[in-house]
Design brief:
This protein is α+β, with helices and mostly antiparallel strands. The chain has helices at residues 2-34, 38-54, 63-67, 82-102, 109-132, 140-145, 164-191, 193-214, 252-264; strands at 70-74, 147-151, 219-229, 235-243, 275-285, 290-300. It is 56% helix and 17% strand.
Length: 303
């Protein structure tokens, strides 16, 4: 059953990818303008795909499940109504798409970090409960939605109650993983305090730079305006910008020069600026398909 479920999900992912590609062919410029919000479109499409096909409308079978002769049903063996299939679909798609979307917002760092923790717990649960529930192979979204996956046209399966030991085992694994992540985060945070102080002192100027760059023609979004330290301890200013035309079909040099003019007009609270880097990006990402290309310039100020 594990191989069939993985296979079905792979087929569904390919189908969604093809659908996303066709959407991009029909409206690439719209997807580019959607920028980071394009992920919400992919989330909606994926959620509705699984909700409709895994409900009684699709006889409990996404196209991938149908190809491999498996189906999702309620614990009593009946097919899911649409509302329940929608809830199950949201449980499956939300962790991936929400994290990808929210990590684009710096002011939601705490929330996206919390969501990242929930993501880890969720995806560990997918494997853990599937392996732990040896009889019915129910995984985490099956448990939460009270469903299970069985072979097509097979008899209703006896559902095994979830034992406390399995839950405690799951909690223990998550606690160990989060402890390791926490220790790693603390180590890296303690080694970057000096950079944090520099960034904080220049934050207002970096925001001004981002605001001025955003006003330039053809700029869709300023991904980052930041101070960076290389492994060679070089201190630099990095500007990453998304534009509304392919960088190969755009007067990229002109935008680069305008950005450099903006940078040179600002007085940073730094003893030195070893380099300046500008990255122009073009493309889209809707979760189920993506495309991007970029062009960059790096000016060495030490020469």
């Amino acid at each position: 059953m594990f191989i069939k479920r993985i296979g079905a999900l792979t087929i569904d992912s390919i189908i969604l990818g093809i659908l996303g590609y066709l959407i991009a062919l029909a409206g690439e410029s719209l997807l580019v303008e959607l920028s980071i919000h394009g992920v919400l479109l992919g989330w909606a499409i994926s959620t509705m795909y699984f909700a409709v096909f895994n409900s009684h409308y699709g006889n409990g079978q996404s196209l991938g499940k149908r190809a491999l002769s498996i189906e999702v049903v309620n614990t009593d063996g009946s097919h899911l109504n649409f509302n329940k299939a929608l809830i199950r679909s949201l449980l499956l798609t939300s962790p991936f798409f929400l994290l990808e979307y929210l990590q684009n917002f710096d002011y939601l760092t705490v929330f996206s970090s919390l969501l990242g923790v929930l993501n880890i717990a969720y995806y560990v649960g997918l494997s853990y409960f599937f392996l732990a529930n040896t009889k019915d192979r129910r995984t985490i979204h099956d448990l939460l939605a009270n469903t299970y996956v069985k072979l097509q046209n097979s008899d209703r399966q006896e559902i095994t109650p979830l034992s406390r030991m399995k839950v405690y085992g799951y909690i223990g694994i998550i606690a160990a993983i989060l402890s390791a992540f926490g220790a790693t985060f603390y180590f890296f945070k303690s080694t970057t305090n000096a950079l944090s102080d520099i960034v904080e002192a220049n934050q207002e100027i970096l925001v001004e730079v981002a605001s001025d760059v955003y006003e330039l023609e053809d700029v869709v979004r300023v991904e980052s305006s930041k101070i960076n330290v290389t492994v060679e301890s070089q201190l630099g200013i990095v500007i990453e910008v998304w534009v509304n035309k392919d960088v190969n079909n755009l007067d990229a040099e002109e935008i680069y020069n305008k950005i450099m003019t903006i940078l040179s007009s600002k007085t940073f609270k730094l003893n030195r600026i070893d380099y300046s880097e500008v990255v122009l990006k073009y493309g889209y990402d809707i979760g189920i398909t993506s495309y991007n290309t970029s062009r960059s310039w790096k000016t060495d100020n030490t020469k």
